Amino acid sequence: MAVLFAALFASCVPQKKMLYLKDAQMASENVSVEYVNERTVDYKLQPGDNLYIRFINMIDERSAASLMGDNGTRSSYMSSDASIYLQSYTLDEDGCIELPLTGKIEVKNLTVDQAKDKMQKELDKYINQTTIIVKLSNFNLTVLGEVSRPGMYKVYQSEINLFEAISMAGNMTNFAKNDEVKIIRQTDRGSEIISVDMGQADILSSPYYYLKPNDIIYVEPLKIKQWGFTAFPYSTVISVVTMGLTMLTLYLNYKNR
Question: Which of 17, 75, 191, 257 has its CA 20 to 30 A from that of 178?
């Protein structure tokens, strides 16, 4: 019995380990707490990135189609990740993108909006009243560790925060260490590893609250799982103990007759 209770006690995860934004939850209903975050989307384009580009000509739709190349097939409906990749424009090893009519345009180390403005200026030299729409088509996130659905996820929006990413992966498990969540991010110098505490409300003001393309989020397990308590055969042990107590009770009743 002592072993059973020790195992059950050790397997219990403290509630504070499972809470997000613990200090913010302590505020009363009449108190509003604000955490400033600029929400700047400053991802710089790099060789190998894929851009979805659409041309819109206010006068002649055929002019826009000719700019797209392939008889305008790039503007067709994109129903899969493969078609998005095939119908997008890829930055070459020099960080340039090659468009019909304008030729190569260097957009390396520019944001998507800066690249759009630069391409628009080049395009205006050749044709009037044509507007371009530019989107980053390879915003991928990888979520690993103590989440319900680990894996790589496609993001079809310009920005996503850490809580949204964890939500896509089905939230953390009961054995997640939410005070040391690792973010692995590629930089010009290599890989950067950042540790963030999702249990504290000041994560909302962190520069790492909003994620960047190709970030990897790793949620570490609690030590209790590393000790193997999650695989402990509780049901079997409880059944054996219950049966033993039942037999002991019957024996004592029989003996006392």
Answer: 191
